[in-house]
Design a protein that fits this description.
Elements (H helix, E strand, L loop, with lengths): L7 E4 L3 H16 L9 H4 L12 E6 L4 H4 L3 E12 L8 E12 L8 H15 L4 E4 L4 H6 L3 E3 L2 E7 H4 L6 E3 L11 H10 L9 E3 L3 H7 L6 E6 L15 E7 L2 E11 L2 H14 L4 E6 L5 H9 L1 E7 L2 E5 L5 H10 L9
Parallel strand pairs: 4-5, 12-13
Antiparallel strand pairs: 1-2, 2-3, 3-4, 3-9, 5-15, 6-15, 7-13, 7-14, 8-10, 10-11, 11-12
This protein binds coenzyme A.
Length: 342
């Protein structure tokens, strides 16, 4: 039985004191007992960053200043578009409301605050024209209760370092400057282009600008690798060629997992993953793979795999019966990469 004993209101925190109160709630609820090596906002630069107050929604007791009483609950609402990477005229687009950093103050849990806040999130998502709400969580029972269902799908492939060694050793390096936003624009554009290659067409992805990619690559505990094969085209005159890239880890999430990648050739990426595994003295390394991958590529991954699991990609709540089939199709034929999921 849940009961809300006080009047409440929704607030989008702003100003340093309110943002600090929000971050305190998030750290205490989502990172209990974990060392705070960096501010939680650094892990979600596009939703918690100071320039993004629109994306945070908190519940507070009416009449109690959040600076004094703190917030009761918080969730992010991040509006994104999903479309075919080639953005050809006439191709469909859906609006997705991505939800994350879902947390209720530890002394206030079980009183209905999150049910109330998710109701507000849904109201705002509808007002912004969202076709569906999506989120990522292990709390299956809770989100099923909140009306979400598993949607889309992904392969989680555990690759054997020993088998990857058979794929050769491409040129591989950690590009200077991605942690401080100093990567050449041409390299970022090249990575966005590579991310669309080798999948059945149309391949739907969440749209991401160069500027957004630059910010996402600054997330702490994230490693970016790029490289090339023997004979290739170049990104731009004077720059080294980039035939593949991959991202491992992001903050406290996805450590040891290749959650975003692109390549002209699966063997190059696999050889590079083998080098990274060897360097980290790992026997195996996990890669997340869109099911829309071309069959020759999945066969190559299969040969080096110890284990392949297929999972739902996200929790989904469709908001519009008319676009529900389109959302389902796009989630199955496309993919939401690790840096887009919050
Ligand atoms: C999970 C969490 C967000 C739920 O918030 P809350 O404010 O306590 O939830 P509510 O009181 O609004 O609960 C709504 C309903 O869900 C149920 N529920 C709450 N937590 C649940 C859980 N972990 N598993 C299953 N059901 C749950 C409640 O019993 C309630 O059911 P009822 O309406 O039938 O009585 C909160 O417990 C929390 O912050 N946990 C720690 C951080 C976390 O795990 N966040 C989620 C990351 S995705």
């Amino acid at each position: 039985m849940t009961s809300i004993i006080a009047d409440y209101e929704f607030i989008k925190p702003s100003g340093s004191k309110q943002l600090a109160a929000r971050d305190r709630l998030l750290v205490e609820s989502l990172r209990p007992g974990k060392p705070e090596n960096y501010p939680i906002a650094a892990e979600y630069p596009l939703v918690l960053g100071p320039a993004m107050p629109e994306n945070s929604i908190c519940v507070t007791r009416k009449g109690v200043s959040p600076e004094d009483g703190g917030f009761l609950a918080h969730a992010n609402l991040w509006m994104r578009k999903m479309a075919a990477g080639e953005s050809r005229a006439g191709m469909p687009v859906v609006k997705l409301a991505l939800v994350g950093n879902v947390a209720t103050d530890k002394n206030e849990q079980g009183k209905g605050w999150m049910r109330t806040l998710l109701g507000e999130i849904e109201r705002e998502a509808r007002a912004k024209g969202a076709d569906a709400i999506l989120l990522w969580s292990d709390l299956a029972a809770f989100y099923a209760k909140m009306g979400f269902e598993p949607g889309g799908s992904e392969f989680r492939i555990m690759l054997s370092a020993k088998e990857l060694r058979r794929c050769g050793r491409p040129m591989l390096w950690v590009p200077d400057g991605y942690r401080t936003g100093q990567l050449p624009v041409e390299m970022i554009q090249r990575m966005l282009q590579l991310r669309s290659m080798g999948f059945n067409s149309p391949f739907f992805q969440v749209e991401r600008s160069v500027e957004e990619f630059v910010e996402l690559l600054k997330i702490p505990e994230l490693a970016l690798f790029v490289g090339h094969g023997e004979s290739t085209g170049t990104t731009a005159p004077g720059l080294r060629p980039v035939d593949f890239f991959f991202v491992v880890g992001k903050g406290m999430d996805m450590q040891g997992v290749i959650h975003e990648w692109g390549t002209i050739d699966m063997n190059l990426l696999m050889g590079a993953a083998g080098v990274v595994a060897e360097h980290g003295e790992l026997d195996e390394i996990m890669i997340l793979v869109p099911p829309a991958i071309k069959s020759a590529r999945i066969a190559a991954l299969h040969r080096a795999s110890k284990r392949i699991e297929q999972h739902a990609m996200a929790w989904v709540k469709p908001l519009n019966p008319e676009t529900k089939p389109l959302v389902e199709r796009m989630l199955h034929e496309g993919f939401i990469w690790g840096l887009d999921s919050i």
